[in-house]
Amino acid sequence: MPFTPADLPGCTGALLDALTADPGLLRLTQWKALERPGASHLEREAHVTKAAEIAAVHGVGVEAGMDTLMLVVVAAQAWATTAPEIRNPDGADEAARLVRHRAAMTKAVQAAIDATSRESAPPSSTPPVSPGAPRSR
Fold first, then answer.
1. Are residues 71 and 7 in contact, defined by beta-carbon separation less than 8 angstroms?
2. Which residues does 91 contact at the CB level (< 8 Å), separation at least 6?
3. Predicted pLDDT at 93
4. Which of 6, 38, 69, 76 lies at a C-alpha separation of 20 to 30 Å from 113?
5. What is the DSSP letter of 16?
């Protein structure tokens, strides 16, 4: 599954498809998080690189790119990490329910990207202000 920062909804859908096709893949990543909750240098580098690519494509800062990347990953995992009785409360056909979920998920990812792109700008050189601290003029 290629990473496509210009088509994050499609990338999210493809990740959902991969996790649905191979449930062991998600179990493996969850087991790794339980065993070693930190990230290796290579994992960090891969995620920062993807966040920077998202930032460049969508005209946001790298931090907003990382937020978007985290959203994509979590959205794609939501189906597999939610019990069938919860994700399909009406007992509808599971395959049809997955199709509807995938459509809703990709629309939500696009909406989040649109909101982030409008509201986020690359960070300025001004240091952050602590909550409750007076702002300088």
1. no
2. none
3. 94
4. 38
5. H
How many C-alpha atoms does 100 have within 13 Å on its Cβ side? Answer: 8
User: Is residue 129 over pLDDT 60?
Assistant: no
**pLDDT the model gives residue 120:** 55
Q: Which two tokens stand for residue 114?
A: 């649109």
Separation in Å, CA 120 to CA 14, 29, 48, 70, 112: 26, 30, 18, 16, 11
Radius of gyration of the chain from its Cα atoms, rounded to whole angstroms: 18
Q: What is the dihedral of CA 35, 41, 42, 46, to 10 degrees?
A: 100
The DSSP annotation for 89-116 comes to TT---HHHHHHHHHHHHHHHHHHHHHHH
pLDDT digits (tens, 9 = 90+) for 65-92: 999 999 999 999 999 999 999 999 999 8
Please say whether the dihedral angle defined by the alpha carbons of residues 61, 108, 43 and 34, taken in this order, is positive or negative.
positive
CB half-sphere exposure, 1, CA atoms < 13 A: 16
